[in-house]
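User: quick one - fold this with adenosine-5'-diphosphate bound?
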Amino acid sequence: MSALELVSVTKAYGETIAVDAITHNFASGSYSCLLGPSGCGKSSTLRMIAGHEVVTEGDILLGSANITDLPPAKRGTAMMFQNYALFPHLSVVDNVAFSQKMQGVEKKARRARAMELLELVHMEDYSERVPDQLSGGQQQRVALARALVTEPQILLLDEPLSALDPFLRTRMRAELKKLQRELGISFIHVTHSQDEALALADDIIVMNNAVIEQSGAPQQVFNAPTSEFVARFIGGHNVMKTDAGLMAVRTDRVQMARGTTGAADEALSATVRDVEFLGSVVNISLDGGPTGDLIATLPDSRFFDQPVEIGESVFLSWKAEDAHHLAA
Ligand code: ADP
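Assistant: Sure. Structure tokens for the protein plus adenosine-5'-diphosphate:
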């Protein structure tokens, strides 16, 4: 297994720069998520890795091989599309065996191999159905099996969970992660969902406006966002204007006490604007005056021990080590 490296990769569509000279090393055998808002260049990046889109400038390396200009089937990558792109008139087993048929693998051998993959995704009992006779989640498993039948070093997934309902999405998320662990190959997964990236990834690559804003382990990106964009996009943070510049503090690191004065270094007075009960936690929206709007997230038990009312004055504090400076 080899690492995948993007070296100053650019994608231009006419005047539009969709991806602007990005450089990143995807460790072998890792689960990476390309995370960012719509239009930031995630899919273009994935399609260039897959070979479905021509690279305008830069290089894509897989181990010691330069795969920048290789056709999709020759790269050691496989792609699973958002809409699964199954052939509607072919049975499940023939869908999975299709690429091997194109490679001239004999029927018995390719069906046997396709059945192995269907077992891997727990779809062996559905092999003779056509895609229309399957649920969305089942179609996705078939699409996974079809992508994996080529034994890729890297599986590329473009918003693979977005077509599923929330319950199934959480379940398939866990299954994708388990599959990646079992196979030991690299998965590169495009998503605009922070939760999905945090739950799945060994490495999160946050993109914005065609560039990589920040990359790292989920805990690192979540605990210490380096820019205002990442702090706002990853969620769970207050972005505050202070004399020293912009700062981020996790909403669950903000302590709240009744009254308007206190002794902590990092502290301010605020007024309760709204209280939102979210089950295990309560989000309290606060007006922090010149510091801006803030949220304090408290465990439900702590909130209900000493509930605050809308309009009440409170005193907020946090540890200096929980505050991170942000690039504008
Ligand atoms: P994302 O996957 O993050 O939503 P994309 O990579 O699809 O972003 O798109 C990045 C930018 O490139 C967007 O501005 C989009 O409109 C543009 N774009 C994507 N595909 C094409 C295309 N085939 N032709 C022209 N512009 C495109």
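One thing worth noting: The pocket of adenosine-5'-diphosphate is lined by residues 13, 16, 18, 36, 38-44 (CB under 6 Å).
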